[in-house]
What does this fold into?
Amino acid sequence: MLKEALEGQVTAVCNAITASVQFQVEPVGRWFEAFLKRRTRNVSASFRELEEEKELSEESEDEDLQLEEYPMLKTLDPKDWKNQDHYAVFGLGHLRYKATQKQIKAAHKAMVLKHHPDKRKAAGEKIVEGDNDYFTCITKAYEILSDPVKRRAFDSVDPTFDNAVPSKSEGKENFFKVYAPVFERNARWTNKKHVPNLGDMSASFEEVDAFYSFWYNFDSWREFSYLDEEEKEKAECRDERRWIEKQNRGARAQRKKEEMNRIRTLVDTAYSFDPRIKKFKDDEKARKEAEKKAKVDAKRKEQEEKERARQAELEAARLAKEKEEEEAKQVAMQAKKEKEIQKKASKKERQKLRTTCKNWNYFADNEAESVKMMEEVEKLCDRLELLSMQSLNEVLASSTKEESKIAVEKMIQEVNAQLLKEKEEAEARARQSSKSSEQSSSGAGGGSKTWNEDDLQLLIKAVNLFPAGTNARWEVIANYMNLHSTSGIRRNAKDVINKAKNLQKLDPIQKDEINKKAFEKFKKEHSVVPPTVDNAVPSERFEGSSADGTASPWTTEEQKLLEQALKTFPVSTPERWEKIAGVVPGRSKKDCMKRYKELVEMVKAKKAAQEHVSTKSKK
It folds into this structure.
């Protein structure tokens, strides 16, 4: 291999170089084997040295374990092996669940060499026969600790493990110092490899949340099969073995439930006293309040912006309205000026027309024709527009008397024809309106049965007397009309309904006319006794104060006062009607008695109509 040329030196080749040749080489030997192992295990070359050092340290530890002795070993009861501390039997009480299998084997080897019955017998010690010797405890301890399943069952009920949960008073004072070792102690039961630490006050929200999420979803491998009271191997039959298994499963499930409740209580207590949780909650509350305040401020600003925009729009609308009003005012003034100008021009042209016609003596030979022509000229002045009047005046100014007369008469004929046409159109409209009114008043829904004014008034009275909600209302109304009608026409519920609908369709003017006719009929029926009867003296009961004998209709307020007075003053009250009349202002004793009689008759008629309809329906 050539040396690297230094700075300033030149490399020169003096002889020709032989061409390179490839060879197939198979690597062998212990060094190549060591290389393959390192590459497969992804370790460095010094890994073997570390393993050798570890083995040497374990051997030295094994030598140390051989020197340890359990002072209570000889006092153990072989029959009570289940309650003994197996790690203490081997002298591994300081390691416990952290002890390796090599350490357990080494401890067992040392214990066997020292406490085997044969060894002790050779040394002259008295040996207990059978399984009653304490060496049985060593055998049972190795049987439990050498089996991973049985060892896990024993570790689950390790008598040295502290299951206590800190109280509330302990956790308040020094949270991290109290709870950190508790969580570290209970972390040995998890199935997961990576367990988050409790941390301190400087931990972030994500770290705290990950810690409590881990413990709230804690997956424990701890099981309590070691505490089974019955061993299924001792069962004499299959049924007994199944019964033992069932009892053991129930006990294990109960203990597992209690264990998970203990873990949950620990986590809940820690969460409730964790100062970081309170800090995070306060920060979250402050953040939400800040967001809420920001939203309120944003909303307030938005409302202020909207209010400013609205005010700007109102101001713009006001200015636009003022501008439109000003423009409209200018247009109106301009139109008024033009109208005044046109009015003056029209007045001037009319005066000119009158003067021209007057100068020509209204194109007449006698006074009668002159008066008649004067009326026609005034008609022209009223009907003609400004342009037509100007054209006529121009013709009259440039024409002779005969030509002017012809032009004026022609214009008069056109105006008269227009007036005649307008008159005919107005008469046609009047006839059409009268025809429509007659058709409406005739009542299209009444069929062939005619309705006179008395029947219409009776129908209106019955509709008001029997309001909506009355049982078989329209049959009752029809029966009422048949009982009180003077026309002698029998009407059914269908006729009454159709006529009521037609009355509702009438315009207000027609309704007013019907009501006016009804009031006139009422005045006629309630007028005073005709003067043809000599020496007629009115009854004392109906003695009235009015001279003409007319009575105004009762208002709603007067009706209410009358009803209340009738309740207040019963029949046994002396001078009853005088007191009732005193309560109703503007009404005399006669008016109150007459109104009471009308109400009684109305109620009787109503009851009679309803009874007739109900009797008819039962039949």
Notes: Confidence is low (pLDDT under 50) at residues 443-448, 528-549. DSSP finds 22 helices and no strands in the chain. The CA atoms of residues 429 and 435 lie 10 Å apart.
